[in-house]
Amino acid sequence: MSRSDRSVMRSTHVPLAMIFGVSAGLGVIGGEAEAQEAAPSNSETESSSIRLPSVKVRGTEDPGVAAGNTNSQVLGISRMPTSVRETPQAITVIPKEILKEQRAYTLDQALANVPGITLSTGEGNGGLNGDQFRIRGLQARQDMYTDGLKDFGTYTRDMFNMESVQVIKGATGEYFGAGNVGGVINQSMKHAHAGDSYNYDQAFGSASLFRGAGDINYQIDDNMALRVNGMYNRSDVADRDRVTSNRYGTAVDFGVGLRSKTSWHLTWQWLNSNSTPDYGVPMIQMSDGIYRPITSHGLARNTSYVRDFDRDKSDVHSLTSALKSEITRWFTLTNDTRWTKYDRQYTATTPGSCSGTCASQFLAGGNPTLPYGAGGGAAYDQHGWGAQNVLMGQFRFKTGFVHHDIKAGVDVNYVNDDRYYGSWSGRSNTQTIRDPYYHTSGTSLAFPKSGYRNADATDVGLFFSDHIQLTKQLALFGAARWDTFRSSYVSQKGGDRATQKSDRWSPSGSIVYTPLEMVSFYFTFARSYKPVGTDVASMVTLSGNTGETPATGKDFSPQRSDLFEFGSKADFFDKRLGATLAFFQINESNSHYYNDNGDLITGFADQGSGRRIRGVELSLTGKITKNWDIYGSYSYMDGKVTQSTTSNGNEAPQVPHNNFSVWTSYDLSSRILNPGWGQLKIAGGAQYSSGYWAGPDITNTARMPYNFSLNGMVAWELKHYRVSFNANNITDHLNYGSSFSTGRAVPTSGRTFLGNIGVTF
C-alpha cells in the first residue's frame, strides 16, 4: 500500500472508526451490554515484545518492564492503581516471558507459579469441574476476570490469547463488587499494536501432545491495527488413562487510536473444547482414621475411572469493547463492555472413598468393589450468557498542596444460566478399584425437561476511590463500593422462583509511606461480601435440597471477608530487580461449603463457619545481572477454623503451610556462541507446597501429601527462528492437582517432555 493510500485511509476511516468506537463503548445495549475497564494502549508494550522500534507517546517506559520486574507490571484495570508497585496489596504476576519459557498452556499451569493457590475437583456432585481455584484457602471459583471484566462461565481456560496473569490477593470488593472474598484472578488479553509481526509455534510432547498457535499483527495505518490469534491443541494427559485435553480457539482484536489520546479496542474470542474430565482416584481411610489418596498407597498412578460416555464439551464466545479517552489533562473517561455466551455439555464419573472392608481388602492386595460417589457423577446440558458494563471517570487535581486522583463510576453486570440435568438408564454405580472398566453397554443418557433449572444474578455497583498524596513521602488511599445484588432460582419450568437480595458496602483504606524513591511501606484494610447466588455458572442443585442458590423461606447472610495487610515493595538496580514483602490476616465469616451431594452444609443460614488465615509472602523478580533473570516467591500460611460448633480450632482446609515457586534463566550466548549465532538460554526451577487438609470439609479427616516439581528448559533463537525443549517434574514425583474432602484426589503427570519450534517475521 502506498503512502498516499494510507493517508486516504487515515483521513476517512479513522474518524468513522472512532465514532463507532465511542458509541459502542458508551452505549449499554439493552441487558446484553457488559462492561470492562479499558485497558491502556498496548502499542509500546507489544512493539517491544516483538523487538520493533517503540513509539514514545507519553513519557518513557519503566525499565522494570523489560527487565521482568513484576512491580512494574501495568494492571490494565482502570478502576485500580496503574501498576503493581502503586497498589497497596499483595499481587502476584505471571508475565508473558515466564508463560513463554515454561510453555504454560492453561490457566492452572500458569498459576502453579503462585504460592497459596490450591484447586478443588468436582465439588458438590461433580458439578463444578473446570477452573475452580482457591486463593489462600478461600474459594475463588467465579472470581475470574479478563482485562478487569468478568470471565463468565465454568470451563478450562487456555492461554493462547493472554499476555499475562495477575492474582490480586485478599478482599477486593471495593474494585470488583460482590464475591471476591479471597481475591481475584485476572488475565490480560493480547491487543493490536503498532508494527507488523507474524508468529507461529508448533509443539510436540508427551502424551501425544500436538499444539499449534499463531499470532499475527497487522498495522492498517498510523492509528489502526488488527491482531489475530489462533490455537489448536490435542493431547492425552500423561500418566492418566483415557483422559484427554482437546481444544481450539480464535481471537481477533481491532485497535483504533494507537497513537492518540483516545483509543478503542474491540475483541472477539472463541474457545471450543472437547475433552474428558478426570475426577481422579478414591481417598482411602488408613489405620489412623485419616483419608489419603489411594495412589500413594499402592494403586497405579495411571488408574482412571473414566467411562466411555464421559465428556466435557464447551463453546464460549465473548465480545469485549474497551474505550479510553484522555479528554483533558485532568479528566479521563473509560468505558468497558463485555458480552459472553457459553454452552457446555458435561458428563463425569465420580469415584467414591474407600473405607472399612474396602480399605482392608485393598491394603491386603485385593481388588474390592468401589461405589461411586455423588450418585455416580454429574451430567448436564448448560446454556448461559452474561453481560457487564463499567463506566468510569478519573479526575486529577490539587487542593492546596494535596494531590488527588479520584476514580468514580458504575458497574452493572448480569448473568443468566439454564441447565438440564441428565437422567441415566442402565448405568452401574459400582466399580472395581484396580482394573476399572471403561466401555459400557446398555447405558443411555437423556436431558429431560423435568431436569430444568434456571438461575440468574444482577449486580449494580457504585464505586469511588481517592488517592491522596499528602507529601512526597506520605499518601492515603481510600475506596468504597456500594453493591445491590439480587439472585433468583427456579427448579422447574413454571415453578415458583426463589429470590435473594443483598445490599452491602465494601470499603478499603490504606496508608503508604515512601521514605526512599525505590522503597515503600503500606498498611491496608479491605472488606468484601459474597451473597448467595454469585456463582451462577457453577451452581449445584442436583439433589433438590439447598444448593448455593436462593431458597424460599431462608435468609442466607452473605459471607464476609476482612483483610489486614502490612507490606513493603522495593526496587533495585534502576528498577531492574523488584522485591515484595507482605504480612497478612484474613478473617472470613459465614463461610459455607458443599457436601458430596451438592448441598450446602446444614446450618449455613446465618451461622456458617469462619476462617482465619495468617501468613507472610515475599517475592523477588527481575534481573540479578545482565544475563541472569529470577522469578521467585514464597508464602507461609497458617489457617484456623472459627465460628464452628463442631470443628472450632481445626486447621483450615486447603491451606498448605509452606509454598514456594522459583524460575531462573541465564543467557549463555556471550559465553558459548560466536557473534551472529543467536541467543542460547537455559532455565530451570522448582515448585513446592507442603501437605494440607483436603477440603472444603473442615473436619480434618482427609490429608493431602506435599507436592514438588523440578523443571528445566533450554532454548535457542537465531534471527527469525527458535527451538526450545522443556522437561517437567524431572524427579517423577507423585503430585496431586486437586482434591475434594474424603472423596477423591486427582494425580498429575509424572515426568514429561515438550519440544517447540517457532518462527517470527
TrEMBL record:
The keyword Membrane applies. Residues 84-184 form the TonB-dependent receptor plug domain. SUPFAM superfamilies: Porins (SSF56935). InterPro entries: Beta-barrel_TonB, Beta-barrel_TonB_sf, Plug_dom, Plug_dom_sf, TonB-dep_rcpt-like. It is a multi-pass membrane protein. Its main location: membrane. GO terms for cellular component: cell outer membrane. It is found in: Cell outer membrane. Keywords: Cell outer membrane, Membrane, Receptor, TonB box, Transmembrane, Transmembrane beta strand, Transport. PROSITE patterns: TONB_DEPENDENT_REC_3. GO terms for molecular function: siderophore uptake transmembrane transporter activity. Residues 259-730 form the TonB-dependent receptor-like beta-barrel domain. It comes from the Bacteria. The keyword Transmembrane applies. PANTHER family: BLR3904 PROTEIN, FERRICHROME IRON RECEPTOR-RELATED. Belongs to the TonB-dependent receptor family. This is TonB-dependent receptor.
